[in-house]
Amino acid sequence: MTLEETYDVIVVGGGHAGCEAAHSAATLGSKVLLVTQNLETLARMSCNPAMGGVAKGQIIREIDALGGMSGIVTDASSIQFRMLNKSKGPAMWSPRAQCDRKVFEREWRKTLEENRNIDFWQDTVDNITTENGIVTGIITKMGVEILGKSIVLCNGTFLNGLIHLGKKNYKGGRSGEPSAEGITKQLIELGFTHGRMKTGTPPRLDGRTIDYSVTEEQAGDEETVSFSYMTKEKIKDQHSCFITYTSPEVHAILKEGFEDSPMFSGRIKGLGPRYCPSIEDKIERFATKERHQLFIEPEGRDTIEIYLNGFSTSLPEDVQLKALRKIKGLEKVKMFRAGYAIEYDYFPPTQLKHTLETKLVNNLFFCGQINGTTGYEEAAAQGLMAGINAHQNAYEKDEFILSRSDAYIGVLIDDLITKGTEEPYRMFTSRAEYRLLLRQDNADIRLTKRGYELGLAKKERMLTLEEKENDTASLIKFLEKQSIDPEDVNPTLEKKGSSLLKQKVKIKSVLSRPHITITDLYVCKELVNFLNQEKTIPAAIEQAEIEIKYGGYLNKEKESVAKLTRLENIKIAEDFEFDKLHSISTEGREKLKAIQPKTIGHASRISGVSPSDINVLLIYLGR
C-alpha cells in the first residue's frame, strides 16, 4: 500500500525532538506526517517529569523565543517552578519546572492536533527509501510506503533498544514498548557509522508509603516566572519536592548486587551519561562519599506515583527494594516498577551538517538521541532546528543555522558535528564560551526577530519583545540621568556594607556596585514614580539592571564574538582537497577530511586541528 499524499516533511518518532520538528515544519507551511509507534505516548517524559535546569533552561527559553512550543507546554503543565543559581551571576541563572507528566503529554498532543498541516500515522518505520542519494520516503513495518521530500529521524532509544534489569534483558525501546530494528542496518548499508550508548531510569515509588516528615522539603519559588515569554499566568498550588540521602548501609546493599549488574558484568557495551550516572556507578566512582543526594519528585497533581531522581539503576528488583528501604523516609516504601537500563544505537553526529542534515544522504535529518545526546531539552532543540531546515530544503529556501555566539542551541549543534561524542552529550553553561551573552533572560532579544523573519514566531511575540526593549531603553536612560540623594540611600548602603555617598550621584553609578540591586534603590521616590508612571514591565527592569551591572563584561564578549565572526565568514569550498595540505599535521589533515568544515571558524574548533594547521589553511586560501 502507498499513501496517496506526498509529504514535504516526514517526522519519524513522537518524542520531544519529533514534536518540535513536526510543529516547526508545519508552522512554516510544510505538509507534515508524524509517524510514531504509539500515538498515546506523544511527548512522553520517559525519565524525570521536569524541564530545564542548568543550561537546559536556557535552551527551552531559546526554543520559545524562536517560536517553538516546549516552553508553552511546560508552563501549562508545571506544578513547581524554581530559578536555579540565583546566588550567582545572571549567566548562571537557569529556570527549572517540575511538570505533571500526563498534562505535558496532553498539551503537546493538543498543540500538534490543532495544526492542520500535521497528519498522524501509527506504525513502526522499518526502511527509508532513497534515489540517487536523496530520500524519497519511508516504508513501515505494516508494509505501507509513504513518499516525502525530507525525512527527520527522531528515534530516541528505540533503535535496536535492549532493556537490562539484573541478569535479565529483553528487546524494547522503553518499558512496555517494542524496539525498532530495521533502520540501523539500512543506514549502515548507506555508509553511516554507528555505535551503542546506554541510559537508565530509577524505580517509580508509591508516594503513600513515603514518610515525608523526615525528609527535607524543597518548595518552589515564591515569586515564580514562566518559561515562555508569552505566558502571563503564574503557577497556582505549587507542589514541593523532597530531599533524602543514601548511606553507607545503602551502598553496602547495592554492592551485594554488583555481580548481577549488567553494567559491571559487561553485558552492557554502550557508554552511559557521565553527568547523570547510575547509583551503582556513583558508589563505585565516588567510593569516598558516604552519601548521595536523592530527590523525591511528584509525577503529577493527580497521582501518587513518585520519581526518585538520583537513583537510576539496573540492579535486580529485590536489591533495589532492599536498598530503598534503608533510605531515610523510604523505610516502608513500595515500588510501582523497578529501575532499568536501556542500550540503543546512535550515529556519531560528525556525519551531519550544521543544519542536522546528513552529509551522505540529502534531505535526511537526524535529531535527538540518535545523535548521541541525552535530555529532553537537547532533543527538543535539535528537533526544532531539523524541522526548520527540513522545511527549508523541501521549499528550496536558505538553511537556518545558529552560531555559538547566537544561542546555546548553536553551541550544542556545533559541538556535536565538530567534536562528535562517544558518551551521551549533555549541555552545561561551561560549554558556552559566550555564556554571559547567552542568558535565559535575553533569549527573546537574541532570537525572536530571527524566528519572526523565518515565519515561526508570530506577530504577538514581536510586539511583546518590542515592549520589553522599549521599556528597557527608557529605564536605562532614566537611571543615567536621575540622581539619588545620600539621605535616601545611605541607610541601605550601610546595611549592605557599601561605601556611603557624600553627595548626589546618578542612580546608574550606585546600581553598578556589587550586591546593590535595583529593589534596594526603591528608596528613591523618583525611581518608583517613573516605574509606576511608565508601567515598566518586570522583565525590562531585570534587563536594565543586568545591562548596567555587567556592561563592561558584555562589551568584551561582544568584541570576542566580532573576532570569531570574521573567521566564520572565511568560507572553505565544499570540494576543497585537504590532502594537498602537506604542511599540516597528519591528524589535522585526517580530521579536516572527515569533518569537511565549511568555514575557518568551524575548522578551528575541530579536536586535533592545531592553530598552526589553521594558519597553513589560511595561507592556502590566500588569507
Description:
The chain is of the alpha+beta class and 623 residues long. The chain has four domains: 7-157 and 352-454, FAD/NAD(P)-binding domain, CATH 3.50.50.60; 204-340, Elongation Factor Tu (Ef-tu), domain 3, CATH 2.40.30.260; 459-556, tRNA uridine 5-carboxymethylaminomethyl modification enzyme MnmG/GidA (Arc Repressor Mutant, subunit A, Orthogonal Bundle), CATH 1.10.10.1800; 569-620, GidA associated domain, C-terminal subdomain (DNA polymerase, domain 1), CATH 1.10.150. A hairpin with a 2-residue loop joins strand 10 (162-165) and strand 11. Helix 2 packs parallel to helix 10 and helix 2 packs parallel to helix 12. The radius of gyration is 26 Å and the shape is globular. The longest helix is centred in the C-terminal third of the chain and has 23 residues, at 459-481. Helix content is 36%, strand content 17%. The strands form five sheets. Strands 1, 2, 6, 7, 8, 9 and 20 form a seven-stranded mixed β-sheet that branches. The protein has 21 helices and 22 strands.
Compact summary:
The protein is α+β, with helices and mostly antiparallel strands and 623 residues long.
CATH topology of the largest domain: FAD/NAD(P)-binding domain
Average pLDDT figure? 93
Shape from CA axes?
A: globular
The quaternary structure here is single chain
The Cα radius of gyration reads 26 Å
So, the CATH homologous superfamily of the largest domain?
A: FAD/NAD(P)-binding domain
Q: Tell me the span between the first and last alpha carbons.
A: 56 Å
Largest sheet: 7 strands, mixed
Number of domains: 4
Q: How many β strands by DSSP?
A: 22
Would you identify the CATH architecture of the largest domain?
A: 3-Layer(bba) Sandwich
Q: Report low-confidence residues grouped into runs of 5 or more.
A: none
The CATH class of the largest domain is Alpha Beta
Give the count of helical stretches: 21
Strand content of the residues, in percent?
15-25%
What structural category arises from helix and sheet content? Answer: alpha+beta
Helix content: 25-40%
